[in-house]
Please model this.
Amino acid sequence: MITVPKLKHTSHQHFFLIAGPCAIENESMAYEIAEKLNSISNKLQIPLIFKGSFKKANRTKLDSFTGMGDVQALEILKAIGEKYNIPTITDIHESSDAAMAAKYVDVLQIPAFLCRQTDLLMAAAETGKVVNVKKGQFLSGSGMKFAVEKINACGNKNVILTDRGNSFGYSDLVVDFRNIPEMKNTGVPVVMDCTHSLQQPNQASGITGGKPELIETIAKAAIAVGADGLFIETHPRPWEAKSDGANMLQLDLLENLLAKLLRIRNSIL
Model:
């Protein structure tokens, strides 16, 4: 199990969960999701890391929502972590983001398209925070050992790797579950991103599509092949979400899904 401050329920052999909205849209929405996730986590005894992007720097269209304000969003993440005594995670996109975000959250996440950016990885590592690196859509699982090496070289051994599928043509992704054992060979915890792996990017409309009806399929397969954790973006009303609503799981469906996944996990231990 990873060493993350405030991570609860680690005495069980359950998978851990990284979950939350794609972006911190506003305070009330963030707390609504955090309250529900914390309740589910405690009920099912699943370690939880609350996720929310303080800034969306990689949107397709110029007028797409990029955030409510960097500091305001980060302050909400910090407050949620303190209120519920749970760790929090957010994306960073530039080296200068690392030190700033590290003041507010427990885990820094490197987006998939940036997983080879040496300066960004090193800046994240040097904060001393846990670093979650998403595997690039253009990489094999075995290629992620180099990202781990870069972070370790800075004296930081607390690394997570997350798969989010591979590019399949121009507007789809496919999940190769061989990547999970390949990344586990690096000796770090491996997570399956069950929502972004179902994106349909590069749509003519400039709005990313998705297939959320397959989230359960991806999650079940990931647990079956040994994933240590799951990444699931969720929202009470995905159709109203300002970012990635097309591939998020409706919040009310999460508890039932996690209960099924625990049964799979327990059956293979």
